[in-house]
């Protein structure tokens, strides 16, 4: 009972921090609305974050989990889905025709994949254990792929000797989110939540160490070519999702 109570408290704190991470891109989309253009921003990180939130939200739903044992996870992912759908809709509204088509097709694809996951979960597996194994394994894959993105940002910081592309507070809150969900998974003896978020803790610590080293560097950042700049924009946006496992809880959810 004590462990269950502690887990609930940890889940609430983790949810609060994770929601803050979900809200960070609002600043980016405020600029998009102001300029009436998406510029060089890619919508792919937000689509991946949406898929992660949907997957982990389904994992936390009573059909997969045993009752509402993962209520905090489900609630956080539900909020994350609302944020990501909002960002994607804004992106589609201001994007040129070619990008609109790509985003609509990609979102349609992940929704189709989600429907397949839900169908398999319900009609193929008939116990909570097997459903958690199936959905949790998919969640681990999506979360691990998203947690690898900040490593590219770390590489760019080392290359340019500038922390411009890796904001301190994003790295800090990504680490806190991963830590809280790792603890949440440990308390619930849930390896599907513990594994990806443990990796998120490691990447978060790495980001902070690199930040501390290069934040003291006074050299101006090296010029980057256009291709490198696009890659950085993509990966900095993705690093904001460490979470979620379920968020990366991508990202980071």
UniProtKB/TrEMBL annotation:
Keywords: Cell membrane, Membrane, Repeat, Sugar transport, Transmembrane, Transmembrane helix, Transport. GO terms for cellular component: plasma membrane. The keyword Cell membrane applies. Pfam families: MtN3_slv. Its main location: membrane. It is a multi-pass membrane protein. InterPro entries: SWEET (IPR047664), SWEET_rpt (IPR004316). One of its GO terms (molecular function) is sugar transmembrane transporter activity. The chain crosses the membrane at residues 6-29, 41-59, 71-95, 102-127, 133-154, 166-187, 193-214. Belongs to the SWEET sugar transporter family. Mediates both low-affinity uptake and efflux of sugar across the plasma membrane. PANTHER family: BIDIRECTIONAL SUGAR TRANSPORTER SWEET3A, RAG1-ACTIVATING PROTEIN 1. Forms homooligomers and/or heterooligomers. This is Bidirectional sugar transporter SWEET. It comes from Panicum hallii var. hallii. The lineage of its organism: Eukaryota, Viridiplantae, Streptophyta, Embryophyta, Tracheophyta.
